[in-house]
């Protein structure tokens, strides 16, 4: 019970911070709206007739995976903030497993990303993105896995950074290239070998492809837009998440002890 309470307190703290930060809430709605409304509609008007599927739907699904991954990963910057404010020190001297503390941070940012997803969900009605109940329920079922992967990636990156200035400089460099390498805005079935390698080691690739693999099951466009099977994506997402969260936590805890 003590462990559960600690997990809940840490997680709810991050959700409360979101609800008090109107700027972050607004930004979480504006950027997906721009990506889907402007870029998605533009590509849809010019390319959908040639490729044989709706580019608007393609981009929308990519934005779902990208936003869940990025929001959770970016939220872990608070680890650096907590360290600088000595908040993490007070947490780490508590009689709670360090893995529980890190997991609580990831769950908190996962809750934040899920709340932000509600706004993206409304865009499906605005832009008339077709959804069936199996598609909707299938995507909702993998939301926790995608946010876990994003949080694990964030922990691994933040564990190797010493201050917020480094985080603000380096983290965008690691996130933004994944927008294109993961195929959020364009298909990546065929790429030059150097981009293919970078794409396949990009964690966001599997978050985005997992969402699409669920949506396009049984659709004639499946082979055109989906890289891996749903099962493969699930195994890779889970495997990457476990490896990164264990490695990131070990590094972060070691650095805390060496302060």
Mean pLDDT over the full residue set: 81
Counting DSSP E segments of at least 2 residues, the number of strands comes to 0
Number of helices: 12
Strand count, sense and barrel status of the largest sheet are: none
Give the helix/strand class.
mainly alpha
Contiguous uncertain segments of 5+ residues: none
Q: How many individual domains?
A: 1
Task: State the separation between the terminal residues, measured CA to CA.
Answer: 30 Å
Rg from Cα: 19 Å
- Assess the beta-strand content as a share of residues: under 5%
Structure summary:
The chain is mainly α. The protein is built from 12 helices and no strands.
Structure report:
The protein is mostly helical and 259 residues long. The chain has one domain (2-257). It contains 12 helices and no strands. It has helices at 2-20, 22-51, 55-75, 78-84, 87-92, 98-126, 133-158, 164-181, 193-200, 203-215, 222-225, 230-257. The two termini are 30 Å apart. 40% of the residues are buried.
């Amino acid at each position: 019970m003590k462990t559960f309470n600690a997990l809940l307190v840490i997680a709810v703290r991050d959700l409360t911070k979101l609800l008090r930060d109107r700027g972050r809430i607004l930004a979480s709605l504006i950027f997906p709206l721009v990506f889907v409304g402007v870029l998605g509609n533009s590509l849809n008007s010019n390319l959908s007739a040639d490729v044989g599927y709706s580019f608007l739907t393609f981009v929308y699904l990519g934005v779902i995976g990208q936003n869940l991954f990025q929001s959770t990963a970016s939220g872990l910057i608070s680890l650096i903030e907590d360290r600088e404010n000595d908040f993490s020190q007070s947490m780490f001297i508590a009689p709670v497993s360090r893995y529980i503390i890190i997991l609580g941070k990831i769950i908190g940012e996962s809750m934040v990303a899920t709340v932000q997803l509600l706004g993206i969900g409304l865009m499906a009605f605005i832009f008339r993105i077709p959804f069936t109940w199996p598609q909707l329920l299938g995507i909702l079922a993998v939301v926790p896995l995608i946010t876990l992967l994003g949080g694990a990636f964030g922990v691994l990156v933040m564990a190797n950074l010493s201050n917020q200035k480094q985080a603000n400089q380096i983290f965008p460099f690691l996130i933004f290239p994944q927008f294109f390498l993961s195929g959020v805005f364009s298909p990546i079935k065929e790429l030059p070998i150097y981009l293919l390698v970078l794409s396949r080691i990009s964690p966001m690739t599997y978050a985005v492809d997992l969402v699409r693999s669920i949506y396009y099951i049984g659709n004639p466009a499946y082979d055109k837009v989906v890289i891996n099977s749903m099962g493969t994506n699930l195994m890779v997402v889970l495997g990457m998440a476990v490896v990164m969260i264990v490695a990131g936590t070990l590094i972060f805890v070691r650095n805390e002890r060496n302060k």
